[in-house]
Specification:
With about 170 residues, the chain is an alpha/beta fold. It contains 8 helices and 5 strands, in the order βαβαααβαβααβα. The chain has helices at about 15-25, 35-40, 45-55, 55-70, 85-95, 105-110, 125-145, 155-165, and strands spanning about 5-10, 30-35, 75-80, 100, 145-150. The chain has a 5-stranded parallel beta sheet, sandwiched between helices. The longest helix has 19 residues, at about 125-145. It is globular. The two termini are about 25 Å apart.
Length: about 170
Amino acid sequence: MTPPAVVIVGPPGAGKSTVGALLADRLGTGYRDTDADIERSAGKPISEIFIDEGEPHFRELERQAVRAAVAGHAGVLSLGGGAVMDEGTRALLAGLPVVFLDVSLADAVRRVGLDAPRPLLAVNPRQRWRELMEARRPLYTEVARAVVTTDGRTPEDVAEAVLDALELRDVLKD
């Protein structure tokens, strides 16, 4: 099986889903989001999985979803914000065209707000987002072939920057 053309990682509010769909369109390929895969297979939103079964159960579902998507999707793939916390997932991403969409807290808040149903941001969302980024930023950077900052950019500009960073212009659809 052909590996994904692009794998997108980053925190909540970075624009992974929006930019991923734009990239897939520009590359003439499919788009897949592991969070959507998890919700579809579980039959409920991620926030409910956290409440009903807990974070460890969700993380196991996430590991399975990432493994399946990396093995079975040749297009653009977006991973949930915490997927990189798993050592096995980081190993699986080694050598793949991974891009880290980096975003500041201010821009993340402007894009999605911090009152959205995000279980890890439920209490003191700004402080929790900062804590998550302190833990995750080195891991995002570790797995990424390229880092693209999204602050002050449109999704279209970010998608173009990803194409440039990963040197994918030669595979664009006509």
